[in-house]
Amino acid sequence: MSASTSPTALPTFADVQAASERLQGVAHRTPVLRSTTLNKLTGAEFFFKCENLQRMGAFKFRGGYNALAQFSAEQAKNGALAFSSGNHAQAIALSARILGMPAVIVMPQDAPAAKLVATRGYGAEVVTFDRFTEDREAISTRIAQERGMTLVPPYNHPDVIAGQGTAALELLQDVPDLDYLFTPLGGGGLLSGTLLSAKAMAPGCKVYGVEPEAGNDAQQSLRKGEIVKIATPKTLADGAQTQALGELTFAIIRRDVTDILTASDAQLVETMRFYAERMKMVVEPTGALSLAAARHGGLDLKGKRVGILISGGNVDLASYGQLLAS
Ligand SMILES: *Cc1c(COP(=O)(O)O)cnc(C)c1O
């Protein structure tokens, strides 16, 4: 069974560096792009770390692979299990295929067909369940026990956090003197990993997490000093529809973050349109959170060097087209 649910020591920057070694030649070193248009418009200098161009279309490959690559021989033989209908599912499926181990992904029956197909396409076995009558955690626990598989959670795991931190590590290697860094925020794996890298590599850099306005549980948690759980928020940002931070991610975020901002769905659509029109890039709604808040979050960025982490680019083309045209 999984060791993933037991409390663990917080990962450190050394863990991010080790993850970076592991990902060498496996993950893409994604480009850091610039936009003269945006720089002119804002008087700031923007640097975009493009994880929408990562393998499987999102940074989640980094954390998934870093976790699976450290399985024991016994764990690797029985394989990895995840419950997710989003990018984490594809990250685990692809990582398992690369490492030659079995993977089971537990998904709701009514998950978008494209996601089921993509996950199966990476060679994973997909087990579906009825969201209205069955409990996915119970199903996952049963499969983990029956088959000896190791459950890999999407964010609250030290190896996942360390892997996610490698995107910011690369960005800060390429652009060491950032004044600001904005990153999307769901369960906090990406933000906490980013914070480990930023605190070590650019201690003066202000790091902001950005979550959807409708689901500001992390902002509430930071203000309150304890993890606040909310109902599943209704937002276009489906990668950040989490109800609560994890214990590990909250501990790091609370210790190191500058602040948490939010962005509205309308701002996300406007930002996706900017990426498409000006930078010729497909960015998913969750991936647009960081720039949306950098532009509309009320901070004065004039004359500053600003890092923007674009977290992913996986969209359903039909709804993407509709959103941008509307
Ligand atoms: C998962 C995900 C996020 C949120 O990451 P957390 O580690 O859960 O905070 C942001 N953007 C995309 C594209 C994602 O898939």
Automatic annotation (TrEMBL):
Lineage of the organism: Bacteria, Pseudomonadati, Pseudomonadota, Betaproteobacteria, Burkholderiales
Keyword annotations from UniProtKB, A to Z: Lyase, Pyridoxal phosphate
InterPro entries assigned: TrpB-like_PALP, TrpB-like_PALP_sf
Limits of the Tryptophan synthase beta chain-like PALP domain: 28-312
Domain of life: Bacteria
Any single Pfam family the record assigns to this protein: PALP
EC number annotated for this UniProt entry: 4.3.1.19
PANTHER family in the record: SERINE / THREONINE RACEMASE FAMILY MEMBER (PTHR43050), SERINE RACEMASE (PTHR43050:SF1)
An annotated Gene Ontology molecular function: threonine deaminase activity
Cofactor(s) this protein cannot do without: pyridoxal 5'-phosphate
Source organism of this protein record: Comamonas odontotermitis
First-tier enzyme category under EC: lyase
Protein name: Threonine dehydratase
NCBIfam families, per the entry: PRK07048.1
